[in-house]
Amino acid sequence: MLKSTIDKATGFEKRFENIGTIVYEDSTSASKSIAQEIAKLINVKQSQRQPCILGLATGSSPKGLYAELVRLHKEEGLSFKNVVSFNLDEYYPMEPDSINSYVRFMQEQLFNHIDILPENCHVPDGTLSKKEIRDYCDQYEAKIEALGGIDLQILGIGGNGHIGFNESGSLQNSKTRLVALDHITRVAASGDFSGLENTPRTAITLGVKKIMEAKRVILMAWGESKSDIIKASVEASVTNAVPASYLQEHRNATFILDQAAASKLTRINTPWLVENITWTDQLIRKAVLSLALYLKKPILMLTDADYIENGMSDLLADSGPAYDINIKIFNKLQNTITGWPGGKPNSDDSKRPERAEPAKKRVLIFSPHPDDDVISMGGTFKRLQEQGHEVHIGYQTSGNIAVVDEEALRFARFVCDYNDKFGMDNSDANAIYKKAVDFLKNKKSSEIDIPEVRYIKGLIRKGEARAASHYIGLPDTHIHFMELPFYETGAIKKNPIGVGDVQITADLIEKVKPHQIFAAGDLADPHGTHKVCLDAIFSAVKELKPKKFMKDCWVWLYRGAWQEWGIDEIEMAVPMGPDQVLEKRKAIFKHQSQKDGVVFLGADSREFWQRAEDRNSETAELYNQLGLSHYAAMEAFVRWHF
Ligand code: F6R
Q: Which of 17, 68, 90, 167 is catalytic?
């Protein structure tokens, strides 16, 4: 466990962090430690015969915590009889039994599985008339006050820094009230509501004042997508633009983070600015590249003075002069660039990212959704195929929930009309499509698709993926649709990884016996699908490790549509010229159902092909700024050693 708190005595981290932060290896271990703190508090209160007042949050962040509290109840006898809970918020309007209500969330994640008394669970009421809300909010606060205030408040954090639904602009003394939701918040929630137009515009939230009055506050954040707002909340000044920054003024608030969420904190991102560090090769590379980019200088132009003036004089004393460090890092970066992602035959490969032998490799590319392959590594995919390797593609999930209803209806109608025309209206196939048409015409918002509709949506994506792979040049026999079962819930919320998922993955690896596996290492995917797909690959690879063919198997990780590897992490960069960029765009265009305002674009309104192009040209631009050759675009990979 990487663990650290602010050291007020040395003032080191205090220079940057204004809130106590604890960083854990992952969200599971972090959630367990929060659960331990809560359990301890409940027990202390129990021994004092007092109620324990908990402020609770919903969303993806506290799920692991609630699962651990349920486990502590079931396996270790933790009782919640003395707990009184107050949830932070609820959408308005909202029926308690709706699939997106926070009442239902709390029941499913926690309340139904522990012995808390139902009358002690409070979640703001989303069914009131507007007139009633004000009094209701006053009473909500009065109840908390009558019990002596919140003992421990659990918080997540929104991408804009909201706590509860106190959006940017909320005042520090704001009361419990009805609020309008930020566009960013609505976009983040829109997946759960099948599109922005169905997403509530308002919510009832506990005010910042009551949160600040809690005796203890724990804010939790997981994943890279939270890293920027965590840095802003912890290190920048207190501002109502980032309500979580108010917690800098709380006497007993702690941010509990996983490594990804903490990754932009100064002490983690640039530790040499905070304390004396042991310079590893990786850290030297990171520091030199950051210095060059910060000073907008090519690596080879950095001077001794640049190192000294930017907190790196110890490195200079140790490994300098600057010229020696510069040349070492420049060469390392140069060696990551290759137009031969499958290795260059008959050449010295001692400094290349991939082996020269065997010249013709078997390659297995895993794509979590049916378009991640071309979005994230379309250029490399095409090169591997053109350079004569035996390339296979494994589409891990059907991607069916990302197809909008109108698209499915259009295809279903096509089949029905076709069959009617040719007198096949009694066939079983026609029955499936007719059922789908009937369902879609009357579908209510946030209703889960029936299996027939999911099947059609899956077929649409299959057709598109096949078209893209054919465009790259793959034969049908090299295209594998894995349809991992964890994905097939019909809802955004997926099942956890199961043995079936790992088995299907292992079977495909064993069938292809690849020299290279390419997998999506993009853990910032907001819906978690990429993470489960990657976990399935990791488990399968570990399981297959003793087999002979695995000795020759290298695993390369690419990133998905949301993030790119840091320049200091990249181990293979595959350059593309302008024509190759256009070819990649055409492959992405084969995924027609994902164009023009798809369901899951997230807060970024660029389409996937635009993001891919921007990102690949940004990587190329970084190499250029650092003094290396200037390409139109570059796809980046990191090797995973198993
Ligand atoms: C939920 C709440 C919100 C969330 C925040 C983070 O009750 O009040 O502030 O904590 O939007 O959401 P997740 O955890 O889903 O990233």
A: 167
> What is the predicted pLDDT for the residue at 11?
40
Give distance in angstroms: CA of 403 to centre of ligand 1: 26
Ligand 1 center from residue 318 Cα (angstroms): 46
Contact present, 118 and 106 (Cβ < 8 Å): no
Q: Is the CB of 58 under 6 A from ligand 1?
A: yes
Residues 6+ apart with CB under 8 A from 542: 642
**SS3 labels along 457-497:** HHHHHHHHHHHHHHHHCCCHHHEEECCCHHHCCCCCCCCCC
Q: Whose CA is nearest to atom 1 of ligand 1?
A: 58
- β-partners of residue 24 are 258
Tell me the per-residue pLDDT of 475-490, one tens digit each, with 9 for 90 and over: 999 999 999 999 988 7
Nearest to 293 by CA among 305, 304, 306: 306
- Can 224 be counted among the known catalytic residues? no
- Average pLDDT of 238-263? 96
- Please tell me whether residue 384 adopts helix, strand or coil conformation: helix
Q: What is the pLDDT of residues 198-226, one digit of tens each?
A: 899 999 999 999 999 999 999 999 988 89
Q: Quote the CA–CA distance of 558 and 585 in Å, as a whole number.
A: 18
Number of the ligand 1 atom closest to the C-alpha atom of 102: 7
